[in-house]
Amino acid sequence: MATERAGTWLPEAGKLELGSCCGPRMLSPERLALTDYEYLAQRHVLTYMEDAVCQLLENKEDISQYGIARFFTEYFNSVCQGTHVLFREFSFIQATPHNRASFLRAFWRCFRTVGKNGDLLTMKEYHCLLQLLCPDFPLELTQKAARIVLMDDAMDCLMSFSDFLFAFQIQFYYSEFLESVAAIYQDLLSGKNPNTVIVPTSSSGQHRQRPALGEASMLEGVEASLFYQCLENLCDRHKYSCPPPALVKEVLSNVQRLTFYGFLVALSKHHGINQALGALPDKGDLMHDPAMDEELERLLAQVPGLVNSVTASSEASCLPSRTPPRVGSPWRPLHHARKVDAESDGSTEETDESET
Subunit structure, per the record (predicted)? Predict the structure, then answer.
């Protein structure tokens, strides 16, 4: 995963904020050390070019009204701002590290009022919120994130927004890496040689079933130093995103033994890992987003009579429907970044109405 931004509009995981602009940048030493093809592959440029061309062909009649050049300009502005993942299919939002970071940030910005109001939601209710942004978001991934928070508690227990969000960040962004970690953990429990661990290579690793972790293994765990040696080798050869090895070492150096879910909890609560990923603010700033508040106020002011109704409804709970809403086929936004903010705000109002 790239750790520095290089180039002009080229996206990078975790370092671009929604609403930010991508201007010309000095080329980094990392960029100069790569060939052109290596750099394009590292930044997943081909993925975005293919997606842009597909959207161009699917919407060529509408795009012809304002020109191809403007379409590409606004498409890549949307990529830089992180709004390109809204209402897209799951295969696209997980396609690149930048897409994953953008989706995490969009989910936080759209539904942070849940945390501000102090609402506690179940796993299924959080999944409904995820489906408002990605209609085919898999339930299994939401369940795995909830398990990090709930541990041995029942899956229908309530969770705070911040607890779920930081657990979801780890599970969603590092899903393939965690699949490999689960396999290593299970091998260590069974006494197998860690050097013979087979790393999953499927691009759909988050859909694989994790090895069953028995009650005894949950209590006993594995030796932290040996676990770190295996993870260090895994990070060196893993083709997907993984936490910085130095921070993983810091997590494991504080204990002698730990369980698999104990490791995931430590990752989700680690301040340095959250900063390295760069998608979410610190926990203390999670409920503050002045830029979004200012934009929403500006949009509401343009609609006569809407401010009073929104103010009155803000006292009501933001809980989603207890049954998953029926979500239509995803709309693939081309360039309407501002329109997305208004629609995402309205989506929670729709779930409120379904509950009454």
Answer: Interacts with PCM1. Interacts with TTLL1, TPGS1, TPGS2 and LRRC49; the interactions link CSTPP1 to the complex TPGC. Binds to alpha-tubulin.
